[in-house]
Structures are given as C-alpha cells and as structure tokens.
Amino acid sequence: MQILERSQKPGANGEIKFSLPEIQEFRLNNSLNVLFVQKDELPIVRFNLITNSGGKYDTANKKGLANLFSRVLDEGAGKYNAIELSDEFDSLGTNFNINCFNDNIHISLQTLAENLDKSLELFATVLISPHLDNKSFDREKRKVITALQQLKDSPDEIADIAFDHIVFGKNNPYAHPVIGYPDGLENISTEDISSFYKERLGPADSTLIVVGNINREILEEKLNNYFSDWKSNSSNPQLSFPSTSSGPKIYFVHKEGSVQSEIRIGHIAEKRSKGNFFSKHMMNIILGGQFSSRINLNLREDKGYTYGAHSRFNYLKEAAQFIVSTSVGSENTGNAINEIIRELDEIKKGIKKEELAFAKSSVTLRFPGNFETYGQIAGNLISLVLHSLPRNYFSTYLDSINNVNEEQITRAAVENIHTDKLSVLVAGDKKLFLEQLEGLEISEIIELDIWGNPVL
Predict the structure, then answer these.
(1) Distance CA 245, CA 34 (A)
(2) What are phi and psi of 106, to 5 degrees?
(3) Residue ranges per domain, the chain?
(4) Which numeric CATH code is attached to 249-448?
(5) What is the CATH number of domain 24-226?
(6) Fewest 10 Å CB contacts: which of 13, 60, 122, 412?
(7) What is the pLDDT of residue 232?
(8) CB-based contact 100:75 (threshold 8 Å)
(9) pLDDT above 60: residue 282
(10) DSSP letters along 303-372, please?
(11) Which pLDDT value is given to residue 436?
C-alpha cells in the first residue's frame, strides 16, 4: 500500500493552457444589454438576468423589501397562478430561480434547447405580467418571518449580520441583512411590492447573460421577440455609502447554550476598482484564502482550534470589507483571536518565494475549472457586470496573477490590512468566552443584539 506523504505540500510546477470562451455583446431593441457565450457541448441554454434592484435599495423603515419582492415575483404571472407556473417550468425540465443580493436581483433560467421558445415565453411573462397579488404576498411574507425566527438559532448567521452592521455602519445601505428585519417587514405592503416592480425592474438598467447551444443571430431574434413588451420605467436613485472607521473594538452577541464561538475579524476595505486587485488577491490567498493558507494552517493544523479558518475581501459594488471568519470551541476563543491578529501582523513583514509560487500555481491550475459548466461561465460574467470590469479581463487574468511579486504582496498587506482599525465580533455563549475577551489587549468590549445594535 502506498502511503500518502503529507509532510510536504506539492510543488508548484507545470503550465496549463486552454481557450477562454468568446464573449459577444449586443443590445436589444428595448435597451437590454446582453452578454453571450456560445457553448455547444450540450443541448442547453442558460440565462442569468442581473437587475439593478438589490437590498441596498430598501428604504429606511422597510428593510427586506427587495428580498420579499423577489420571492413574490414568480408567484403567478399572465394566465398562470403560482402552482401552474411552477408546473409549466417543471414539465419543460426548465430550472427557474430568483435570488436577491445586496446589489442585484438575479433571475436565472436553464433549459433544454428544444424547449427554449416556451421557456423564454414563460420567462418574459414573469417579467412583464407578474400578479404580485395579496395572497402570494401574505404567504411569502410569512415564510420570511419564519426564516427570521429560525435565524436566531444560527450563531454563524447572527455573526455575519452583526459584523456587517458594525463594519459598514448603520447608515450604510449594505449594513442590513438582505432578508430584512421583523419590524421592517411589518411595514411592507403589496403596494410597496408593486411600486418596487415599477421603479426598479427595467431592461435599460439590467444585463442578460446567456450561455448555451444557440447562435447569436437566432438568440437575438428570439429575445427581441419575447422581451419586446418589457419596457423600462425604472429610476436610479442616488445612494450614499458612508463608511465608519474607529479604533479596534471587540463586540459580542450572546447565544445561550452555544458551545462554539463564531468569530469575525476585519474592517472596511477599498472597492474592487481601487488599488492593485491582483496583489491584494494573491496576498489574501497566502494569508487565508485557501486550505494551505497561514491562518488555516495555524488555527487548524497547528493549534487544532477549528475545522477551518479563512480570510477574504468581500467586494460589493459600492463598498468592500476585509474579513477573517472561523468557528472555534468556546474555550479557545481568546487564543484564536490572538493568533489571527498575529497572522495579520506577520503578513506585513513579507512572504517567502515558495509561498507565492505555490499560491500562483494553485490559482492558475484552478482557473480553467472556473469555465467548465454553463453556470460557471455565467457566474464569471456576472462579476464583469457587477464590477464594471473590461471584457478582456479573463484573457489577461493569468498574466496579471503571474506578474505579482513578493514586494507587491507586502505592500498590499501594509496598505490593506489595518490592525489598528479591527472590529472583532464573537457570537456564542458569553459565559464561556467573556473572561477571555477581557484578557485581550483590545480594551473596549460592547455587547450587541443579533442585529448588531448595542445592548443598553
């Protein structure tokens, strides 16, 4: 029997070459922008509609409006009620989904090429003639309220919500959870849903991504045919994204009976379009962006505190945050926080050539795998839309990665990781970790409720 040698990680060697899919771009008669990739291996066509209508557009006292709208949108349209519409998609073998995020609502459809016309007809019906009726609204609202109640029993979700609130600051549109708050949902009516549809869902402010087995001319003809009645009434309100920056603080959310501590450590960061993205990306890969990263090897392999720890830059359209996340046994809360902060300081002192070589190898060898499935290709094109990236972004990606050097990594760490501005958030049973927090060098400790508000 061959014994697997784990004491040495694999070397970084070999190059991989592959052909990126060609991105074609055109605009429909109703002003809807389309990004198209022809992929003929399977008789499938996938659509991802990216609408500029995410949770950031929720009004102050109606948080959760965009999410609730996205849930009601396909609950009946045209001549179909909710069950009939679902049955129509199912009979075609067509997957149809709507999801709401901070910046956008994503509407996806994947169908067999032979059922394309009927699937597109249903898709267009949802966009053009949704019912948005009281019965569907009440049903989906109850589901969201139930989900919010269940959320209270999930320390990891509590930690994520509270962390966003304290890092972005309560006046930032990204500070609230997309699902909303219980009191905000109570303020939302069917009239609000209808108004949101009229004001936020329009082709001129959306992008359709298409990947599949069809040629451009036929696709363009079909889209112009089925989407011709979808007109743009949407407005584009100006939003403000204020950021908060204060000295290091510790926050905690008490969850009675939890034996684990959910830890989030980080701060506000520069937008995706600012700074050298690739040096930041490679720095984070080494720090906490993959299994062999410094943070994970320290907390998991060396100390045995956790099953996994990672760091990332979370890029939204108008803001970003740097965050380290992990879950540890409550008895190791203070030690884990100290080790994470130590790694954040250490990365600023420089890296080894071997670390960078391995990180580059890992990224470049995984890169072709990001374009294997129809969904993966569409997902990558979504990032082009969300962050307004150049259309040749992927064709120059590997060169940009390989051009990063050790000096740039160090500079990226110094310029983008600020241990003097860290927010440390712990969600768990305070009886098991509060004394440990009091022993840390960060003196200010604040208790929060599950939504990130100070407990008075």
Answers:
(1) 39
(2) -105, 125
(3) 24-226, 249-448
(4) 3.30.830.10
(5) 3.30.830.10
(6) 13
(7) 79
(8) no
(9) yes
(10) S---S-EEEEEEE-SS-EEEEEEEEEEGGGHHHHHHHHHHHHHHHTT---HHHHHHHHHHHHHHGGGGGS
(11) 97
